[in-house]
Design a protein that fits this description.
265 residues, mainly alpha
């Protein structure tokens, strides 16, 4: 099976999963579950891509490495997002999707269907760099070690940032305050920064040495585009400004928006 056909089959499966999820949303399932399913689906697609590459004769050690990296990344993010959804009130919805539904009005079913199918596409697009890494032939090299090192740093940084924010938000004394704990003192979005860094791991592994290496470029590019346009940084900034006002405005003046860096006085 060619990589192109593999991507098309993965897209068809992803569409079926997210269409089913949309039907469940119409029956009352919280829209926020789409984030959880996206993280899980991306990991499952990446694992299936790596397994198919190994079956077709690609480097087995490299396919196993890519599958392991994709699986652990997906499990951590799925667990984190699942916990966030379960903290929502029983009769409540994530504020992003509540605003989206209110803005769509009577067109909400069609708008959410388009949104869910877009998530199906994004799941495939983010599994593509993992496919490009798994397709690289030959024995393991120093670039595989570099990719693994980037992956360890990225997942450790993202997990640390998530844990620091979770502990800060859990303390009632911090209500209405801005989190400046740990990594949040050096970047306004350290969790997003390390998530973006994670996609460079597959580029390091697969960019060189074969004709499909260009597929790995899609990971950092698509994640940066997504975080700065559709979701991530902009909605988070606007939500924090609405909730914390002058305190967050001061935080914005002092702390780097992206790359962890020293605070400005």
């Amino acid at each position: 099976m060619s990589p192109y056909l593999l991507i098309v089959v993965g897209w068809a499966v992803s569409n079926a999963v997210f269409f089913t999820l949309w039907l469940l949303w119409r029956r009352g399932l919280k829209a926020a579950w789409v984030d959880v399913v996206w993280a899980a689906m991306t990991g499952l697609l990446a694992i299936s891509f790596a397994a198919t590459c190994a079956y077709q004769g690609a480097s087995l050690p490299r396919c196993l490495l890519v599958a392991m990296m994709a699986n652990l990344w997906s499990l951590r993010l799925t667990k984190h997002l699942n916990a966030r959804v379960r903290r929502l009130p029983a009769d409540g919805e994530d504020s992003r999707y509540a605003r989206m539904k209110n803005a769509a009005g009577p067109k909400a079913p069609a708008v959410f269907l388009a949104f869910y199918l877009a998530q199906a596409l994004w799941a495939v697009l983010f599994a593509i760099p993992m496919l490009g890494a798994a397709l690289r032939p030959g024995p393991l090299a120093w670039t595989d070690a570099l990719g693994l090192l980037i992956w360890v740093v990225a997942l450790t940084g993202e997990a640390t940032a998530d844990a620091q924010l979770r502990r800060f938000a859990a303390d009632p004394a911090h209500k209405g305050q801005v989190c400046r704990a740990g990594l949040w003192a050096y970047s306004r979005h350290p969790n997003y920064f390390f998530e973006w860094l994670h996609w460079w791991a597959y580029l390091a592994i697969g960019i060189a040495g074969h004709s499909w290496g260009w597929l790995t470029l899609s990971g950092p590019f698509f994640m940066l585009f997504l975080l700065f346009t559709a979701t991530g940084v902009l909605p988070a900034e606007l939500s924090s400004l609405r909730a914390r006002g002058a305190a967050y405005a001061e935080y914005r003046r002092q702390v780097s928006p992206w790359l962890p860096w020293c605070r400005r006085k």
